[in-house]
Amino acid sequence: MCKIDPRMQPYLFEIGYERWSRAYSKVKRSMVMTSNIVESINATNKDARELPIMQFLEYMKNLLQQWNNKNRKSAMETSTELGKKYDKLFRENLIASEQMMVRPATEKLYTVLEGVRRNIVCLEEGTCSCGRFQMDELPCLHAWAVFKNQQLKAGQYCSFYYKNDNLLRTYEFSVNPMPYESLWVIPTEVLEDVVLPPKGRRNVRRPRKERLKPASEKEYKRGFSCSVCGQSGHNRKTYRNRPK
């Protein structure tokens, strides 16, 4: 971090871990991205932004229709209790929990031995000392070891939002297609509304399509150097002082 930008470390420490680390976040994020959504949309409609406004809106409507229909179809074809993404992680943790020793302290508190490591699982609070159980809201491998040892159902300890039924509800509202413009029913108050151009002065240069990337995201090309003198800018063949 300090190699990229020395100013970054004190700034991140000052604002607090909960602002940039999911492990310290005071809000449960449930493995769902909650930032950079605007950048994802902008990357998708980069070329479409050159279109006139009506054609651009038509493009965005078709894009949202496609996404919504694809995700709804994927959820309908899923036969597991959890969505595809979460069911895969669910089963990976199940496989990783093999050959672990479980020592019960109470009905809700357990010690799970993973080699020389000792992990504490609390079923009442849904936590594990490894941090994955409460952070992902999905049973970690240590919690899975407890479930198998006590013959408990692991599905009840998964987040409400990971269930396939709830994923279906997310996409139950379709993006309706638009009829031809001549068939539109436009209210009178909308027709009488006068839309003026925005106030402001436009820059002389052409609008930028891409954001300015920081130094941490730039890709640096590896330079070549001469194998004789070790300096950059030329190679062995173009070395002027090479012996003849």
Question: Can you describe this structure in just a few lines?
Answer:
33% of the residues lie in helices and 7% in strands. It has eight helices and four strands.
E-strand count: 4
Which sheet architecture does the biggest sheet show?
4 strands, antiparallel
Count of helix runs: 8
Oligomer: single chain
**Shape field:** flat
Radius of gyration: 28 Å
User: What is the H-and-E element order?
Assistant: HHHHEEEEHHHH
Low-confidence stretches: none
Question: What structural class is derived from the secondary structure elements?
Answer: alpha+beta
**Chain-averaged pLDDT:** 83
Q: Going across the major beta sheet, what is the strand order?
A: 1-2-3-4
Report the helical percentage.
25-40%
Beta fraction: 5-15%
Domain SWIM-type: 110-151
GO molecular function, one term: zinc ion binding
Region (Disordered): 202-222
Keywords: Metal-binding, Zinc, Zinc-finger
Describe the structure.
- Residues 202-211 have a biased composition (Basic residues).
- Residues 202-222 are annotated as: Disordered.
- By secondary structure, the protein is an alpha+beta fold.
- Among the domains are: 1-30, no CATH class; 42-177, no CATH class.
- Helices cover 33% and strands 7% of the residues.
- The longest helix is centred in the N-terminal third of the chain and has 24 residues, at 53-76.
- The radius of gyration is 28 Å and the shape is flat.
